[in-house]
Write a structure and sequence with these properties.
heterodimer; A: about 375 residues; mainly alpha; 2 domains; 4 strands; B: mainly alpha; Four Helix Bundle (Hemerythrin (Met), subunit A); about 0% strand
Chain lengths: ~375, ~170
């Protein structure tokens, strides 16, 4: 039982940060950022005794409104499935946070602290598996509502999500080949170092002619090793999330609101919130895979602890390192959330056949080519080294 | 009972119960398909308890995440309403089902206790993606390539057949 306590604390931390703190604030960020981009003021009316705090009270007002609204189940609906669908859609999203590390592994004397709820050997596969369950929430919601618009929306959603799942898996195989692991914590550790940009030339005998250029280094982050995979994977996870520009399952100008058309009150709120929670999950996953996770560029964990220990001792140094890493992780998460918002308010919604063409005719061949090229480069470098 | 054993029996029972619920949902095909999903997920948990992590992930990704969704697609598009299936189930079919089920149960009870392998030393990376990958791409690479060629032929064949019907 004692082993369960840290796990419960870490789970609670994730739920408090990702679900209870980040997600409502993002709804405010979304409104404010769209307002800035469209030269408006944005949400600023909700107030408590005249205090508006820049419109930050709007999420609070939203939650109160959603909780107190009537929860309508349409007459022709399948009641049990209609009530269950929002839960099926939202729980997998929260559960996928369980394997994403928000810090490294730290040794305080005899106790070891690792900042991840479940350090699975098959971490990335777990996320893919969990993400594929979320499809059912939308499919069942559309069918159980007994409304043709909803059914059309859920058919669009399931076709889109299944198609993009294929490319999502293939697009980061190159990353697995670089880091040689599927464990997200090991990926983080692998990204906690640097590589010399022109170092590969040494294998071909260009040592002297490089001069000072041979000292230039970059962090071994996924985005620098696999830039194409970053773009492909981000596109895929955004399509999985069904937010604009991939919001064809909702397509309000054609099918009103798609699969959650017949939902009201907090059950609608669950669909709505799960999209925003997924924004956080995507940001955290992109950070863990491509932006070095919790690591600080050009400053590895050994450097930090080694540098601070002579001044404050090992305990304080390790604690400080842990704090810096968690702050770095969430700073990168915020950056990725901002990027998603920027994309969401920049790109218009494509036609449905264009979404499918993009997946099957552009991104799938590109991700296969990425695997091939990555494999070739690894082979050549191994051959040159040997 | 240890924690893995508790999970094993709980989700084993869930798999059996949801499989029964799938067969017994005659009037609502979508509910039957959803029961099948619960069966798949329960089986995946059982695989996790048995240290077959890759199989568990594939079970959910392939069966629950893709194949049953396509089942649901078909069911929803056909929009089969009440009793379409139920009327066809005549007495003879039911009798045949009962006989088959009893036969399968008998064969299972007869064969399985005799054919279970004795407990061997399990390698440390048993069931991990690394072990499965090594087996697939190193030891059994020819069967793997042949089966992928077969699957490719099946995909191309399906596309050709569907296209011909359209035009």
């Amino acid at each position: 039982m004692e082993a369960l306590v840290p796990v419960l604390i870490k789970t609670l931390f994730i739920i408090l940060v990702a679900v209870a703190a980040f997600a409502p604030v993002i709804t405010w960020v979304e409104r404010k950022q769209s307002a800035v981009m469209q030269d408006r003021i944005g949400a600023n009316r909700a107030d408590i005794a005249g205090i508006t705090v820049l419109g930050l009270l709007h999420p609070v007002a939203d939650v109160i409104k959603l909780l107190t609204k009537e929860d309508v189940v349409p007459t022709g609906a399948n009641r049990a499935l209609h009530l269950m669908a929002p839960l099926i859609a939202s729980i997998p999203v929260i559960a996928s946070f369980g394997v994403i590390p928000y810090g490294g592994t730290y040794h305080f004397g005899d106790t070891t602290v690792n900042l991840v709820v479940a350090d699975l050997d098959w971490g990335v596969l777990y996320i893919f598996a969990i993400a594929s369950i979320a499809t059912y929430g939308t499919v069942i919601a559309g069918w159980a509502s007994n409304n043709n618009w909803s059914l059309l929306g859920s058919l669009r959603a399931s076709a889109q999500m299944i198609s993009y799942e294929v490319t999502m898996g293939l697009s980061i195989v190159g990353l697995f080949m670089c880091f040689q692991t599927l464990r997200l914590t090991e990926m983080g550790v692998a990204q906690d170092s640097t590589f010399r940009i022109l170092g590969f030339l040494e294998h071909f005998g260009f040592v002297e002619s490089l001069g000072w250029l041979s000292h230039l280094t970059l962090p071994t982050w996924g985005i620098l090793l696999q830039p194409l995979a970053f773009v492909l994977f981000l596109t895929c996870v955004m399509a999985e999330n069904k937010r604009p520009p991939f919001d064809l399952p909702e397509g309000e100008s054609e099918i009103i609101a798609g699969y959650f058309l017949e939902y009201s009150g907090m059950r609608f709120g669950l669909f709505y919130m799960s999209e925003f929670i997924e924004v956080v999950v995507i940001a955290a996953l992109m950070t863990a895979l491509f932006l070095g996770g919790w690591t600080i560029p050009w400053l590895s964990q050994a450097d930090i602890i080694g540098g601070v220990t002579p001044i404050f001792g090992v305990g304080v140094a390790t604690g400080l390192c842990m704090l810096l890493h968690v702050v770095a992780f969430f700073a990168k998460v915020i950056l990725m959330i901002w990027l998603q918002m920027q994309i969401r308010w920049t790109l218009p919604r494509p036609r449905y056949d264009q979404v499918m063409d993009l997946c099957w005719k552009v991104m799938l061949p590109l991700s296969l080519a990425n695997i091939l090229v990555t494999g070739l480069v690894i082979l050549v470098l191994q051959g040159a080294r040997a | 009972m240890s924690a893995p054993a508790v999970f094993f029996y709980a989700f084993g029972a869930a798999a059996v119960l949801s499989a029964l619920s799938m067969v017994l949902h005659l009037r609502n095909t979508v509910a039957a398909a959803m029961s099948l999903v619960v069966t798949m997920i329960s089986l995946a948990v059982v695989y996790v308890v048995l240290d077959a992590h890759l199989v568990a992930a594939l079970q959910i990704m392939v069966y629950a995440g893709a194949i049953v969704v396509v089942f649901l697609f078909v069911v929803m598009l056909l929009n089969l309403r009440h009793d379409v299936f139920a009327q066809r189930r005549e007495r003879l079919v039911k009798l045949a089902g009962v006989v088959l089920a009893l036969g399968a149960a008998f064969a299972f009870l007869q064969l399985v206790p005799n054919s279970l392998p004795t407990v061997q030393e399990i390698p440390a990376d048993f069931g991990s993606y690394a072990a499965v990958g090594r087996a697939l791409y190193r030891d059994f690479v020819l069967p793997f390539e042949i089966s992928s060629l077969l699957l490719l032929a099946a995909i191309v064949g399906a596309v050709v057949l569907a296209k011909r019907r359209l035009s």
